[in-house]
Amino acid sequence: MLLLLFIFVAVGYLLGSLPFGYLMARTKGVNIFEVGSRNPGATNVRRVLGNGPGNMVLALDAAKGALATSAPWAWRLAAGGSAPTGADNYGYLAIAGLIGSLLGHSFSCFTKFRGGKGVATGAGGFLVLFPPGGLAALVVWLIVLAATRYISLASIAAAVVLPVAAIAFKRSVALTVLSAGVAAFVILRHRENISRLLAGTESKIGRKATPSQS
Question: Measuring CA to CA, which residue among 145, 13, 24 is closest to residue 68?
């Protein structure tokens, strides 16, 4: 079991490390690490290159998390096993894949361990691993974004919803701890945004970011 956990963390890490934001920007002749917030996430790509490339990166980053999380179940089905129940060891392997993808996205081995903040990748993973919680977080993200136009605030609020939903839906201790850990990770990755939100200098969606903003 420990070997399998390591394998799926590694698989998730490699999937998560695929730097779609960086690659998308390079196709436009832009080094995303030198413009806007210098962050390769979908938000910065959207501000620098427009909605089309930004939305494509958002979808691809979410797909990384979804693929990494579903990889253990896909492997079992390919080997002739039954459909997942979510209450067996494959659930732990899915958690390992999701953790790996978040680490890969945020600290990509292909971009000198620089990366995004993990929101889209985490969302893709949770929609596979814990659909009710993932959907609840998505709804909160949309509501907060529509009300405030702050993507960072919407992302933080959505992250906080995950452990609350895990408790409300009486999910396993492992999933609840994972949800809380991912929420803390996302909030930590947004610490500079939090400082700007408190100072009233955070950039809103639809407005160009200054070089120090994300």
Answer: 13
